[in-house]
Design a protein that fits this description.
alpha/beta, 8-stranded mixed beta sheet, 8-stranded parallel barrel, 37 helices
């Protein structure tokens, strides 16, 4: 006979697969000799058997009876005993806590008979009837699925009838009437009488917990969180203890350290003469845990001792629930406590310094996501700016700028050097230019998965979305109070809280950012406990990580910042921005050129500019590798928009004014128009179809290297060819590059070692990596494009149309643009690594897509065996941290490691 | 010591890797005892060693000397002997014959001394000097790389000086002067004297053959034909025999059957008293081989006997070169002969009927490409229409229609039911609609790889390109003779010959097409030898092939034609055309609908139309499977073009006339605009984002099946979901479909077995096929889209921009849209097959991309193990043939099989 029921005395905390998180920890506390009310746990196996068969498994009822009897004998009361009944709680307890599942039914065991015994045993008839009405209410709601308002209506009706202001003003007769009313609700809306059989009460509660595993909300949550459908939930049945039996009773929740700040010392809230739900509901103001020593000093001391024991045992911050019944302390729950990002860093380092955990363990207890949070700029404390409204915190940070109500205006303002907040009812892909030009985005519609939110997070821009009290119309918005804010007015948005302020709110870099940017002295680091903690952990991450961390940086300013942030080189220097601004006109000339001489003129004009670009970056990254990607986007991206230009020309013609340059340009734009430019003439194809273009760039790189060498520097440029699908494309580009490098070597009398490699950003490149590796000294995975082609969707288009809906429906757990898709894109990465190394074992392998800065993806890349990740400068510290964590995860944390 | 030289007596025809094709066949003929002039072959290994080291391998010269001595003793003359010199030819001979390589130098062994011996031995001084000047000319051109005109100038000068009309009018002194002139040319332009050392002549010729392996033209040819760079070429050194030594001498080329018509009986051309180059140059009119019996009956009979022996030995059509020297027959070359498509079919079946080869072998000797050729429509013989000009035969067939000079006009004309020829200077992707609307395309610019040519071949439309005598301007073109052809005038274009005719030239289906379309009686089939041959072979292909052949057909007319062409069902019925025409307006209403009721109205209107669509197709394909693909293209494809509409609205606004419907439509178009629609909201994404749309189609399919069942039919529809990237997309669509099918079953009281499957057309679908197969009863590979995403390019865009250039440069051997790319796309197909079968061993696997009708790709699919291919109805016979050939290729031809 399979064992489906475990007494709290039989399990331990390692058994969360079988007993759920709550049950395992109750067993652990029992094992430690802490005062846990007797009880038992029905296993997840029972739940799985129930789900498979649709009925409870054979033998489970008998096992429950045996363990109930054991609990009865331990407590000295009997379940259903009309003279002094044992009451129990029934709680769900899956391995991972999950919203959408049934949680708790208290006071099971009360009926029209046992209530008399409870009243007699406790000496309080009111207490007994209040307990009974709570049971019926909870049972009705969670077991029978009745709507909450049905019970609230009865209670409110009784209060009105009795003139009671609050629940506590109801007397015994009122509560009896409420119980009658509740019973009538149950009968009317569920078709059954409230069960008087106490075992039926318990059984129905157990089955309700099982069933709640499969509610739509629970299933959706599991899909989104990638929790297996097969785990099932356990059920905990625990003797009731009451914190509401007078002034020597009470209840509370506490943490072994402050989970908000990370300050040391126990921290919590409690209430005398109350039940848990009273603490949560906030009906009465709770007291601080430290105050408890004034009310019940012995129990307080016992509780503190228990908490210290738990923290020492769990070697981490613990979060507990306790009840004091008639001066007796009972522990109802414990778990490793949730905490803020700041607390996570501080507590981890405190525990290291207290000798409790190792540095490896400390590193494992913080995340890159938490570090990102600590790096957001914030509004200065007490800034006093007036609040205009509040929306959803869509993308964190704090941003201040002037309002622009269209993408075009945002771009215009930004071009004049102004900081802009783009304000829109909602955004769509046409707003991308405006979003890029802005420091923050505010919308009045849409949630965390709206276009604005998803794109802003992708860009790392602050965003507040769905601020629906703000009415956006034309070039203004109106607040709930009627205040009008127009174009050019200054506002501040807080992407962490969702608040919108009027005026130039002061924004500051966080201390952690200042530290990571190298602005703090050792003394300043030591003086700030949070910065100290970040310092200890990130230095440890650097010491353990296997992968290198480089930055994606296109300018010397970005390169300098990346270096301060700890980047060991540049993994991706894009060159397209070098063809924008005043140089755009050169691209127009290139496209319109009719003969080789005109083309050469353009190249001649570009060469010194490109040499300057590359020399600057190589100077900032002296001594470190700089991977420069040759021009990638289609040339028509540098030309005017087709529709805009068509309209302009048509209107001019209608007026009889024809601008011949516009007409010529329109012809060129139409000639070069592509229905799917992402899949068109770009990357290496451009290099092949416009002879000399890549050569120009390679020459500029070689010249810049020569200049730096002659200046006494240590330049390490690498040439990266984008969008290669076949080695037959790479070979001619490589051969041309080698010839040009040799020319420049001869010209300056220097040796130029410039590795030539390629992006792996097309499925075919990954699948034929063993062929491509013959002509490539390095691979850099472009996981943005690889995701687009592997899934067959364009990021801009799908984020505008269906990503939000896919996330909501659980088709995506995470957007594949946020974290690498391990089964599709990741599989191609693994294939390419294996095939690439098979012909060139020492090939350098990195990633320069945005996944390079995403924690989940970094762990994937560690397992896949990449040599380095490259990400935006701001993400470099996150990548350093996560690369360290990933190394530990792949090798197992070294528990023997001490500081 | 490696053996680098083989006497003709040492090899055989199986040794073409080592001896090249020509050498192996010379050895084979020698082995058969046929009269081959003595000689020897230097191996491809020697060539490879030469290329690796840059110098001839050690020992080769000695081996050449040994074999030369053996040849001398066999012939009884000595190389370089001034009294009676042995002369030799040096010819290249790679495994595959290759344009761009050096071919032949004759008469090696002549110098200022040996010429006297030759004159004495042959008794003709003129013959000797003519031979000498030919040697210097060929040596100068092919060994020293001098330009041909240098020698022609000397010869022409001498003819002018002597008043000679042709070469034969030059006397001995003239020829001596020519020799002097040639020697001067050699010295002046190569810097060396023409070598008098005969071994130097031979050595230089050998090295020149080796070097010619690596000319740019040869390399490009190998890249394009995917011939390995490593093969190298052999060199054949053969005793000279002379067909120009009087009336008992002669030379000719012949075939064992007529290679043009396939008619039985030997067939060839010859000339008395001539050398091979005279036959080729066409200076004198050649005689028929049969006439030879009048001139030299014994030799003729001997030759016929040799040819019969060769055909019996090679068991195939042989192509020979022979020379008769003083009444003695010499065989200079043989190989399996090239032939026309018609001859290929006829000869193969003749050989079967003569008991020479098996049906399997016959099937192996014809190709789908040849069958395609036999199926092209053609202009009726003797049509007499005036020829306007001639271009490149870009895409075969014959088409007649009225001229349209813009894509828009072509579409307009076609909409009124007219047949249109689109005439353009050149085409670009904006012309696609016009190309689709036309029956043929004529351009005045561009070659076989121009946009027009590539796209036309892809569409199977007749095209003539680069007809540069036709001046296309505005809405007319002018011929070389000044004739003007304007819009609406009728022309005919022959894509097989490149000819352009004026007027309504009569076009007929070929007899083979009539046969394949089921229009011929058994008697008619038997009466036409070509049709008979096609019938024998295609029936044999059907009997041996493992894969099924289905058709891509969207209408009942197409379905009926496909069935006549031999399709065993429909592999792809697209449904997008069912939303065009008058139904387009319903899609506009769907897109503009603001509420569920309006959407439902559209669905209600579409349902009976869709039921009608599907009932018709199921009726035509009664008893056979019909795979119906749910709607695939983005909905905005059914809306007006963004730029056109923007211009229309802007112009209307400028005139103060605002069409509110246009404005509303423009907003919708802008809202739905996608920058890369191929990667946007389409396929299954559409089904998920527009709830009810796929449900409507599934309901129509189920209703149509029920109708057919109740009519007593045998309908077998299957539902195919497009563009699935993850099983999480397929599952909800599948579940909805199953529910709807159950509803329709209940409504009609019938059982509807409708398999539900998916396209595999995204890399991710292939990579996660083991997950997707859990929810799919069949896979159909959409290799068009799979090629686009695997390579990261859009067919329309790249065919307009770089495919031509990529083919020219050899980056593509074949366009991956024409034949499946085995290393990238093919690898994904194999991965998906393996993963799909791993979880569902009986999963049905097919392909419905255009590769399904491409011979090369069909062989790939056979090897990969697909169950069927599906292609356009016209391609079905080709696929039947090639699937049969592919089965034989994968299992090895069964030589024991006889008719």
């Amino acid at each position: 006979m399979q064992k489906y029921v475990y007494d709290f005395t039989e399990g331990d905390r390692t058994m969360s697969d079988l007993l759920g998180g709550k049950g395992a920890n109750l067993a652990e506390m029992t094992r430690l000799g802490l005062p846990v009310p007797p009880g038992f746990t029905i296993t997840t196996e029972a739940c799985k058997a129930y789900m498979a068969a649709g009925t409870e498994p054979a033998g489970m009822a008998e096992q429950v009876a045996v363990h109930l009897a054991a609990t009865e004998s331990r407590v000295g009361r009997k379940f259903g005993d009309p003279t002094d009944p044992l009451l129990v709680s029934v709680r769900s307890g899956a391995k991972f806590s999950m919203p959408g599942m049934m949680e708790t039914v208290l006071n099971i065991g009360l009926n029209d008979e046992t209530i008399k015994g409870l009243a007699a045993a406790t000496g309080s008839e009111r207490f007994a009837w209040d307990s009974y009405r709570r049971l019926i209410q909870m049972f009705g709601k969670t077991v029978l699925g009745l709507e909450a308002h049905l019970f609230e209506d009865v209670l409110d009706g009784q209060k009105a009838k009795s003139g009671a202001k609050s629940d506590v003003d109801l007397d015994v007769d009122d509560l009896k009437a409420v119980v009658d009313g509740y019973k009538a609700v149950v009968l009317e809306h569920s078709g059954i009488e409230f069960p008087q059989d106490v075992r039926e009460q318990m059984n129905r509660a157990i089955m309700a917990v099982f069933d709640s595993w499969n509610t739509d909300r629970a299933k959706l949550y599991r899909r989104q969180e990638r929790i297996s459908e097969d785990l099932g939930t356990a059920v905990n049945i625990c003797t009731m203890v009451f914190g509401n039996r007078g002034d020597s009773s009470g209840t509370g929740v506490a943490f072994t350290r402050d989970p908000a700040s990370g300050n040391p010392g126990e921290y919590g809230d409690w209430l005398a003469n109350a039940q848990g739900e009273d603490v949560v509901a906030g009906i009465r103001n709770t007291l601080k845990l430290s105050d408890m020593s004034d009310y019940m000093p012995t129990v307080h001391d016992e509780l503190i001792a228990v908490m210290r024991k738990l923290e020492a045992h769990y070697r981490d911050l613990c979060d507990i629930e306790f009840t004091v019944e008639d001066g007796k302390l009972w522990m109802l729950q414990t778990r490793v406590g949730k905490r803020t990002p700041a607390a996570a860093f501080r507590i981890a380092v405190q525990l290291v310094e207290e000798g409790v955990i190792t540095l490896d363990e400390a590193l494992n207890r913080v995340t890159g996501k938490q570090l990102v949070n600590l790096m957001f700029p914030r509004f200065a404390e007490g800034h006093g700016a007036p609040l205009l409204g509040k929306g959803i915190s869509a993308s964190p940070g704090a941003a201040v700028g002037i309002c622009a109500f269209s993408s075009a205006r945002a771009v215009e303002f930004a071009a004049t050097g102004k900081k802009v907040i783009l304000v829109r009812r909602e955004t769509n892909p046409d707003d991308l230019a405006g979003m890029m030009a802005s420091v923050g985005i505010l919308t009045s519609r849409g949630g965390k998965t709206s276009h604005a939110a998803v794109v802003a997070r992708g860009m790392g821009k602050t965003a507040v979305c769905g601020a629906d009290e703000l009415l956006v119309e034309g070039d203004r918005f109106t607040t709930a109070s009627g205040q009008v804010v127009g174009e050019g007015d200054v506002i501040g948005i807080d992407g962490t809280t969702g608040e919108v302020f009027l005026g130039d709110v002061a924004v500051t870099d966080s201390a952690v950012t200042q530290y990571l940017d190298g602005q703090l002295s050792d003394a300043q680091i030591a003086a700030d406990p949070l910065v100290h903690a970040v310092d200890v952990i990130i230095r440890h991450a650097d010491s353990v990580r296997r992968m290198g961390v480089r930055a994606n940086a296109d300018t010397d300013e970005d390169a300098a910042r990346a270096r301060r942030m700890g980047a060991a080189g540049i993994g991706l220097a894009r060159t397209e921005h070098m063809f924008l601004g005043s140089r755009r006109e050169l691209v127009e000339r290139l496209v319109l050129a009719q003969d080789q001489a005109s083309i050469q003129h353009v190249y001649d004009a570009l060469l010194p500019l490109q040499i300057g670009d590359f020399t600057g970056i190589l100077r900032e990254m002296d001594g470190l590798p700089v991977v420069i990607r040759l021009l990638d986007p289609p040339l028509h991206e540098f030309l005017p928009n087709h529709t805009d230009l068509s309209v302009r020309v048509a209107l001019a013609e209608a007026r009889g004014e024809v601008d011949s340059k516009d007409v010529e340009l329109l012809k060129a734009v139409e000639r070069m128009h592509e229905s799917n430019p992402m899949l068109g003439l770009r990357g290496v194809r451009l290099g092949i179809m416009f002879p000399g273009l890549f050569g120009l760039q390679v020459r500029a790189i070689a010249e810049a290297m020569a200049i730096r060498l002659l200046e006494g520097g240590h330049p390490h440029p690498e040439v990266m060819v984008p969008l290669v699908a076949t080695v037959a494309e790479l070979e001619p580009v490589r051969n041309e590059a080698l010839a040009i490098i040799a020319e420049v070597e001869a010209k300056h009398g220097v040796t130029l070692e410039i590795p030539i490699g390629t992006m792996i950003e097309l499925p075919r490149a990954a699948l034929t990596a063993h062929r491509i590796a013959r002509a490539a000294e390095f691979f850099s995975f472009g996981t943005n494009d690889l995701t687009q082609t592997t899934w067959g969707f364009s990021r801009d288009d799908v984020e505008a149309s269906f990503v939000g809906e896919y996330l909501d429906r659980g088709i995506f757990g995470t957007s594949p643009f946020e974290s690498i898709d391990p089964y599709g894109v990741g599989e191609l990465v693994k294939i390419a690594i294996e095939k690439g190394r098979s012909v060139r074992p020492d090939i350098s392998l990195g990633v320069c897509g945005e996944h390079g800065g995403d924690p989940t993806s970094i762990h994937f890349f560690e397992e896949a065996g990449l040599d380095y990740v490259s990400c935006s400068p701001f993400r470099v510290p996150v990548a350093r941290l996560e690369a360290g964590r990933a190394t530990l995860a792949s090798h197992g944390t070294r528990h023997s490691d001490t500081r």
